[in-house]
Amino acid sequence: MRGKRKKNVGVWGSSRFHRHASATRWRPLVPPWLPSPPALRGRRAGDEGANDLTEAPKAARLSPTSRRRPRRATRGGYLYVAVLFTALIVAGAVATAISLDTARIKTLGAATDRQSAIRLAESELHRVSVQLAEDPNWRDDLTNGQSSAWIDYAAIAGTADAAARYRVSDVDGDLADDPFDEIEVVAHARFGSAQAAVSVTLQTGFAPLDWLRYGVTTFDDLHCDSGATLVSERPVQVYDDCKTGSSGDLTTSTLECSGAIQFPVRGDISGGNVQRPTFDVVGRYQLAGTEIPLESLSYYGGLRAVHATVLSSNTNPYGPLDPEGIYWIDAQGQSVRIINARIVATLAIRNASRVYLNGALSWEAPGESGAILVTDGEIEFDVIESTLDETTQGVNFNPPSTPYRGSDSNLAISDRFPTEFRGIVYTSNNLLVRPTVSGEPLAITGLVMCRDLRLYHSVFVSSYDEVLTDVPLGFTDPRPLRFKSGTFRRVDTL
Q1: pLDDT tens profile 334-364
Q2: What per-residue confidence (pLDDT) applies to 70?
Q3: Which residue from 70, 93, 157, 344 could staple onto 312, CB 3.0 to 4.6 Å apart?
Q4: What is the mean pLDDT of residues 385-403?
Q5: Pairwise CA distance, residues 341 & 343, whole Å
Q6: Is the Cβ–Cβ distance between 449 and 212 less than 8 Å?
Q7: Which of 32-46, 374-388, 401-415 has the lowest mean pLDDT?
Q8: 61: buried, middle or exposed (CB in 10 Å: 19+, 13-18, 0-12)?
């Protein structure tokens, strides 16, 4: 083998070589994951042992790792900036989301408090209406337009800040002048962070007075004298005593009497609890009706009188018509007589010394039910006749404007009508009944209410139950209150 050239041995002793495409010498194959061999890194000029490998291109002398480093450094800077901006965007989005969510929670909380405040104010309105209805003296105790103290509802509402107050105002500025006046109630409530106020108008509930359940009510005594008998289909209530100076008796389903009973009673007997009037009944009708001037009445038997005429909502010989058939007279301290007439109306007579009812009278309340006579003067039934005769009086009592109940009108003056009293007879004074012309008992279909009832002749009082379902003006209880339709609204807080 002498004389043959030895194979070159690589720097690392490897026998694996390849021939570089642009070189005339063999070069070792270096794995890319190893650092370049020292021989391939090149030597400084003049170094001993330098060989041709130092002349290889620079790209060939750098490992793949070394060649990628500059590009990676550049990419790393861009990536850092991108990540930074992304982080800022995400952080901003998160902050915005948290802020919006917090605002939404606050908004929802405020809306919930607002609704709760409104509900609390509405509840306070209901509570106040019940309180007023149960307190008979509230109009005297409260001050018009003055707010109440705060009422704490924390325990009921389940929150520390829940309270309400109210204000009551009369439409005319005076709570005590009229028990039937409408009132405005404002309830102001606070709940959490919210406050609200609501108002409503309250009016009387138009419940019937307790008197309407009785045929006869006296605010003092009942006298039955001269053998007079009182018969009442409905119960009789007497505030004080049932008296007689000679003889008399009572027939009724139940007598409620608070005092002594001096005459025989056919029916049950129990203690009485009569409620006296707390308001001016005559004044109620005066406010609602049309005046008949006293001077428009002609004289009869020395007294101003309604006589020989028809009086109704469609007929009024003394002045303007009243569509409800309610008329009032100021008697100016004089006595007034009502005689030989047909009346389909309510007469309210104020300041009368006495009101005399004489002759033949066909008298009924206007509408389905109501009063026929209300007065603050003494009432006296005397010499009542049984028949109203057109021929005798020379008057048509059945004109087209006011036909008789259940009949056709006409222009003749030959009709006859039975005497009747159909409705409520009320006076805050005394009521006396003297003998009729025929001797028959005085018949009243209705109710009798007075201070003292003094009977010198028998009286028969028939039931008049219409008043319980169609409560007449002036006989409603002002204490129960109700919300007036269409008046509920939200208002400014107090």
Answers
A1: 999 999 999 999 999 999 999 999 999 999 9
A2: 53
A3: 344
A4: 96
A5: 6
A6: no
A7: 32-46
A8: middle
Other Cβ atoms within 10 Å of 113 Cβ, number: 20
Residue 157: closest CA among 125, 108, 129, 118: 118
At residue 219, what are phi and psi to the nearest 5 degrees?
-90, 5
CA 70 vs. chain centroid, Å, equals 86
Q: Give the whole-number percent of the chain exceeding pLDDT 90.
A: 67
What's the pLDDT tens digit per position in 10-24?
444 444 444 444 444
Which residues lie closer than 8 Å to 362 by C-beta, 6 or more apart?
341, 342, 343, 388, 397, 404, 417, 418, 419, 420
Residues forming a β-bridge with 417: 388
The mean pLDDT of 141-165, rounded to a whole number, is 92
Give the residue-averaged pLDDT of 71-82. Answer: 62
Chain position carrying tokens 């989005």: 93
Residue 94: burial class (beta carbons within 10 Å; 0-12, 13-18, 19+): exposed
What is the DSSP secondary structure assignment for residue 261, as one 8-state letter?
Answer: B
Tokens of 141: 């105790």
Q: What percent of the chain shows pLDDT beyond 70?
A: 80
Question: Which residues make Cβ contacts (< 8 Å) with residue 447, sequence separation at least 6?
Answer: 211, 212, 214, 215, 216, 217, 234, 424, 425, 461, 464, 467
Rg (CA), the chain: 54
Local confidence band at 82 (pLDDT 50, 70, 90 cut-offs): confident
Cα 28 vs. chain centroid, distance in angstroms? 107
Query: Does residue 86 carry a pLDDT above 90?
Result: no
Backbone angles phi, psi at 259, to 5 degrees: -115, -150
Phi-psi region of 181 (alpha: psi -120 to 50; beta: other; left: phi over 0): beta
Short-list 388, 360, 383, 379, CA closest to 424: 379
Burial call 181-210: b when 16+ CB within 10 Å, e when fewer: bebbbbbbbbbbebbbbbbbbbbbeebbbe
Cα–Cα distance for residue pair 434/456, rounded to 1 Å:
5
DSSP structure string for 323-382: TT-EEEEE-TT--EEEEEEEEESEEEEES-SEEEEEEEEEEE-SSSS-EEEEESSEEEEE
- Gap between the Cα atoms of 457 and 434, Å rounded: 5
For the chain, give the mean pLDDT.
86
pTM of the model: 0.73
Task: Tell me if 360 sits within 8 A of 414, measured CB to CB.
Answer: no
